[in-house]
Every structure is written in structure tokens, then in C-alpha cells.
């Protein structure tokens, strides 16, 4: 994205950071999703299902890639940074949901996940001077 838009900077440093920390970030995201989404699926499952649970979460070995970073100047005592990127899952990515209705059970898999994203960070001043 930084090639097309001169206001967007290169983010090689961020991609190096994501590559180095991805195994830990992946594990953390998987634990949080399992702990938060698992009970939510259980509470909101249709009445005809006896089981609806998140059985496996792994986003694979390939980290997301940041394509550019755009810094907006100081606005009303804050600074805003947009990070543009993409996550394309590799063959090791697996998100599985177990489903059971009476004697019939199945596993639904989410594969070939691809997400384009923009993360907006807003930094506000902690003190006034």
C-alpha cells in the first residue's frame, strides 16, 4: 500500500516483529477465542442441538503482514495511527466447531481464512500541560 499512497509508510520493522512473536500471539488469540467464544456458542446454541462448541483454534504458522502505516497528526490532544494489513492463513490454520444433535455429530472447519484489516490506534494525552 505504501507504493500507491505517498502518505503511507513502510512497515518492515512491524513485519519483523510479527514474524518473531507470532507463535506467542497465535497461542494467546487461540486461548482468548476459546475462553470467550466457547461459552457464547454454548449459551446461544439452537434448542435442537445438544452440543455446539469451539473444539480447536489455530491460526497457523504464517503471521499477518502489515502493508503500510499512516500517521495522522495531532488532533484534539491525540495522535492517530492506521496500520493496514492482511492475514492469509497457511495449511496449518484450523478452526473447528463440534456439533451434535442426538446421535448425529459433525465437525465444521473454517479453512482458507483471509482477512484484510486496518487497525486504528489512538493515543491520547495523559496529562494536560
Protein architecture, described:
The protein starts with 11 loop residues before the first helix and ends in a 5-residue tail after the last strand. The protein has one helix at 12-43; strands spanning 51-58, 65-75, 78-88, 94-101, 104-110, 114-124. The chain is 25% helix and 43% strand. The longest helix has 32 residues, at 12-43. A three-stranded antiparallel beta sheet has the order 1-4-5. The mean pLDDT is 86. It is elongated and about 65 Å long. The chain has 129 residues and is α+β, with helices and mostly antiparallel strands.
Brief summary of the model shown:
The protein is of the alpha+beta class and 129 residues long. The protein has one helix and six strands; from the N terminus they run H-E-E-E-E-E-E. A hairpin with a 2-residue loop joins strand 2 and strand 3 (78-88).
- Structural class assignment: alpha+beta
Q: Give the strand content.
A: 35-45%
Major sheet strand order:
1-4-5
How many H/I helices?
A: 1
Tell me the helix content: 10-25%
Key descriptive features of the protein:
129 residues; 1 helix; 3-stranded antiparallel beta sheet; 43% strand; alpha+beta; 6 strands
What's the structural blueprint in terms of helices and strands?
Blueprint: H1 12-43, E1 51-58, E2 65-75, E3 78-88, E4 94-101, E5 104-110, E6 114-124
Antiparallel strand pairs: 1-4, 2-3, 3-6, 4-5
